[in-house]
Specification:
Distance between the termini: 26 Å
Largest sheet: 2 strands, antiparallel
Number of strands: 2
Strand order of the largest sheet: 1-2
Order of helices and strands: HEEHHHHH
Number of domains: 1
Shape: globular
Oligomer: single chain
Structural class: mainly alpha
Length: about 110
């Protein structure tokens, strides 16, 4: 989300998603098989946590003030697994330092072309 907030455009105050700007330019990590398995496990935990609330919409589930604790924890674990796949220091990484590191990776990708 930090990447999206940095590179996407806006229409009024709403984000304007674009596959060619936001997603096609995203610098993906190259995780090990162990890291892939951990990311898959934590992603499944997110789906499992959502399934606990079949009558809730995504808007309900992702309301910052009422997000179910098991869903929040599942996302935190997934974030940690993905950050580890990038080799980022999970304990010290902030949103702005994460974006800075992603931009460095993006720069390397564009220089290689």
């Amino acid at each position: 989300m930090a990447w999206m907030r940095t590179v996407t455009g806006r229409l009024k105050s709403d984000y304007r998603y674009s596959g060619s700007v936001v997603y096609n330019n995203f610098p993906w990590p190259t995780p090990t098989e162990e890291q892939k398995a951990k990311i898959e496990e934590t992603a499944q935990a997110i789906l499992d946590a959502r399934a606990l609330y079949p009558d809730s919409s995504l808007a309900d589930l992702y309301d910052e003030t009422t997000m179910p604790p098991e869903l929040r924890k599942a996302h935190q674990q997934n974030d940690k697994a993905v950050m580890q796949a990038y080799g980022f220091d999970v304990k010290t990484m902030t949103e702005s330092s994460c974006v800075a590191e992603l931009m460095k990776l993006y720069q390397k990708l564009t220089e290689a072309k």
